Structure formats: C-alpha cells, structure tokens
Sequence to fold (698 residues):
Amino acid sequence: MASTSTTAGEQAPGLQSQLMTLNLGPQHPSTHGVLRVVVTLDGEEVVEAQPDIGYLHRNFEKIVEGWALPGVVPFSDRNDYLAAIANEVCVCDAIETLGEVELPDRAKWLRVLFAELQRIISHELWYGAFGMDLGAFTPFLYGFRDRETGYLLMEKATGARMLYAYNRIGGLRNDVTDAWLKELEGYLDFMEKQAFPEYMKLLIENEIFVMRTKGTGQLTREQAIAWGASGPVLRSTGLPWDLRKKRPYLVYDQLEFDVPTGTNGDNYDRAMVRMLEIKESIKIIRQVLRRLPDGPVLAKARAAVRPRVGEYYARQESPRGEVGVHLVSNGRPNAYRLKWRAPTFSHLQLVPLMCRGVKMADMIANLGSLDIVMGEVDR
Amino acid sequence: MNDVLAAVLEALAVLTYVALNAFVLIWLERKIAGHIQRRIGPLRVGGPGGSLQSLADGIKLFSKEDFRPGGRDGIIWWLAPLVSMTPAVMVFIAIPFGQHLIIHDMNIGLIYITSITSFGLLGVFMAGWGSNNKYSLLGAMRAGAQLFSYEIPAILSTIGVVLAAGSLSLETIVAKQSAHWFLFPQILGFIVFYVAILAETNRTPFDLAEAESELVGGYFTEYSGIRWAMFPFAEYGTLFTGCALATTLFLGGWHGPLFLPGWVWFLIKTYILVFIAMWIRWTLPRVRIDQLMDLGWKFLIPLSLINILGTGAYIALVR
Fold:
C-alpha cells in the first residue's frame, strides 16, 4: 500500500525517507522466549530481519561432557522445554545404543505413547501462541485449557509438569496405572470430539485467519531442504518426510498413521499440518492403548552405563522436527562429545529469507508459524 | 451567570457519566472476555461479580509512578492523552439519550460529532510522535492511516440517514424513526457504519495501532499510570458514543415497542451494540494493514456509496 511504505521513486523533492532499525526483543510479547530480531523497516515493510540468538545459552553440550551419561537426560529436558519427552527419548536412544542396553517391550510402547501425548500438548501451545501472534487472544486460552489437562496427566504419570526426567537409560522411571490409561482415553475423546472442532472453528477456519496466513511466509521445497528444515515446516511444502515413517524407531513401524502434508509451504499449510498432526497423534495413542504389552518398564539396572567406544547419531521426530543427538564415546562413563541437533535452530535461519519485503505483521506470523523454542536454539 | 453555572453543571454531569460508563464498560469487557474464554473474569476485588475491579484499577493507576520516557517531545507527549480524551467526552453533549434528554440539540449535531471524533486521531498521533519510541511511532502511523481511511465510510454511511430524515439534528433524526427504524431500508449503511466504528475505536480485528503481538503497546507504549488510563478511557468513551450514534441513526434511538422510558431503550440498544463489539474483539484475529486499507477503500466506501445512491433514488422516486 502506498499509504504505508515509501519508495525513493515517489518522493517529493526535498523530502527524505530513512530506514528504521528496530530491535524486536529480547523482551517482546511475541518473540517466543528471548529471541532478538534486528529488523530494518521501511515504514511498515521489513527490509531485513536478522535473528540474534544466545540469550538462553546454557552451555549444554560442554557441560554434559563432564557428567556421567544418565545425568544428561534431565538436563536435556531443558532444551526443547515444550516437548521434553522427545529430547529424553532421543538422548536415551543414543546412550542405550552405545551402551548396548536392551529396552523392555512395554517401555518402547510407553515411550511412543508419551512422545505422542507430548506432541499433542506442544501443538496445543503452538495453536494458542500462533493465534496470539495474529492478534486473537481467545484461542490462546482454549489451547491452554487443554494443555493444562494434558500437563495434569503428565504430572500424574511422571511427577512433573514440563521437565519430566521420566526416561531412564533402559526404560522409564515408573510404570503407569490402568486408571491413568483410562483417564488418558477420556482426554483423547475430549480432544477429538470437543477441543479439535473448537480449535478449527475458532481460529483455523476463520476468514481473517485464512486471509492472514494463505500465501504468506511461503517456502519452496528446495528452500526448505537447503536450509535444513524438518518437521511440519518441511512437510508443509509437500514432502512427506517424517522420521517416524522414513526411519522408524521404537515401535512406530507397527503403528498405522498418516503423515499430513501441505502443498504451498505457507503459514496456512504449516498451521494445517500441525492441526492434522494432533489428530494423527490421537490415532497413534489409541493404537498404543489397545496393544500395550505387560511387563517391566525398566531394563535390569547395571551399576553404571559404560558405552562402547564409538559414535552414534540418534534422531527422532519431535513436534518441531528432527531432533538429533550425536554421541561420541571413548568408553568412559561420560560423553566425549555430545552434539545436539535442534530443529528450530535450522528453522530460525529461515527468518531472514521469509521476512524480506513482507509487512511487519506478517513477520510476526512467520516467526509464530515456525514454532521456535529458544531453549533448544540456544542450548 | 446562570449560563456559566449551567455549563459547569452540564460538564460535570457529562464527566461523571463518562467516567461511570468507562468503569462499567471496562468491567463488562473483562467479564465478557472471561466468559468467552472459559474463565470467570474479575471476582475477588469486591462488589457483585467483582464490579469494583475498575475502581481498584483506577486507584492503582492513580498511585503509580509518573514515568516519563527520556528524549520525549515534552509538551506534545504531555498533551497527547488529554487531546485524545477531550473529544471522547465532548461528543456526549450532542447525543440524545431520550426525548429532550440531550444536553445540546444542535441543528448540525451529526457534523459536530463526526468532526469532534476526528480530533481523537490527533491525540493518538501526538502520543506516537512525542514518545520517542519506535513502536509508538509505528502505532501512530498505523492509527493515522486507519482512522483517516475509516472516517470516510463512517461519514458516507450516515448520509443515507440524513437524506431520509432530511435533517442533521440528531433529535429530529430519532423523531423521524417513530414509525420504523432506518435500519431496514439502510442495512448497508448500518453495517458500514458499525465496521467503521470498530476500526475507529481501534478494536480487534482492527486494533493495529496497539497490536500487542507486533508493537508491544502501540502508540501508548511509553505511557503508564493515569496518563495511560486516559487512552482506554477515551477508547471506551468513543466506543460508547459510536454505538450510541449507531443507535440514534439506525436503531430508532429512544423508540421502543414496550412501555419503558425512552432512555432505557436507548441504553439497551447501545449496550447491545457495545456487547457485540466486545464479542467480536475476543473472537477474531487481527487483519493486516494492507487488508485493512483494502477493506476500507475498496469495500466499505463503495458500499456506502451504493447506500447513498439507493436512498437517493428511493426518495427521488417516491416523493
């Protein structure tokens, strides 16, 4: 619109326009944690957006080098704090592979169950936050209502709300009760019958929402692959790349589910992919509930985990994409090197590309649709 | 001497009403938001349903530190809340709450209201300019573009009513609606007017000027305490007057089917419109600035022109 942006060509002689540099964050309502974006603005239009990270740096990778491996698990919770189970399962997978620990069957199924429940909870939060980014306050509270129920379930099973430390090397800390599984089923019913239709009606199907998200923040498949995108961001461009299908781990190869994909790779498709993933996760949990085997949830404990010399890259499909742990061991109880691959670290690099030349409001929407968690970006 | 006394009393009455109205509306907004969002809303401060919340908020705001941003444009920054609040109060004197229940029935009442409301923009712009804050400046720019563009459809949509009533005096306009309201022949005008009011009061889906997720607090980012309170005070004043004007122009003002006093009918209709505005606010996401401009210039203005054309043709043919 001519009323909001000026270009050098249409200026009256004698008038000058100047680009404005705006520091968006680290304290800002919609930077999702402590992200700082240095935005160069031409009126309402973003000329350049440069994310500046590091405000939540905890030196994760170096600190864990000095720790015995089981101690890494609780600390890994803090990376993607909105999907802590995915971190735990991933880091446990790496340690178990190198330490040659065999997982009991029930633990495998339960890990899938918790990972998917975590995915639902994480997407609920994203739904609320994305609504907030677009200026709708109410979806936030609806997302939080169900996230709260989910967290209560998590708390009942694991003892903690967000940072569980529930996975152990070789299984899970404790088993779940039948009563809890019943309650979980009730939650799934509620999500499917009431909450999900509400989500769609309240925000996703809204005319203004569609207007705001369709065609904005568009990524091509080539761009997404080139910048290392994964998860919903990659799938929204039409590539059905889901590690649960392509590189099945735990018991995902025995489960039936679809991989939702988009076509345009815009904000709307990313939103739709995440919404449909909630449905798929519900489907997966229902299958797990039907087929959950009996037995122990923790392998016979050994005095200490001693991984063999070597290296292993474990990766999983977290709600945000591919989370990976590259563990290098020299045979000692602590890691020689542990590299953490955070999906949203790669996604954050897309911000300058996606935000060049868009309106300020769309920049916020783009940031929101990438679903960035600064905990894992900064580590 | 009597004139002066009367003027002072009138001003006091208006100020009291505006303040009370803002208190009620803020409490109402929070209650409605609460129930829409599956919460309860204010409850614990006191009064039935927590209705003293606004009073408590007022006391808190009065006692807060008077923070002044460094590098502000002194007088402009200081004046801005007053400039945006004054027109919101001034508008009240021309609104017919009931038959003869109007402080000043001017023969140009409608023009008076629309021109006074436009002053509000000045306050918003001064706040954004004087704060020495980039978010405020962006908010003020947005507000400038937005209020200016929505002023036009708002005024154009009232022309149909003026044509039908043959008068600019609000009391005459209401009196002309004793048989049937102007709503039904002029439904287009009503819709345009209502949407324009939402935009002029900076409410979702048009709250771009204060867009929290983008601009932190928009044009009043740098205001706190009672200075800040003047902006929502003005906003709720304008919301009420906008809805009152819609009631006056389209919904038959004080006329009602049952034997209730006129002013009760007037308030019922107005508060229903206010409620709808709140309902919309807590349901919809925000539009983008270019979409806002498109809606204003490419949709609302043509619609209101069609409304004028239709009304004009009807009058020309029938009379």
The radius of gyration of chain B is 20 Å. Chain B touches chain A at residues 33, 36-39, 134-135, 138, 141-142, 145, 149, 204-205, 207-208, 211-214, 216, 282-291, 293 (CB under 8 Å).
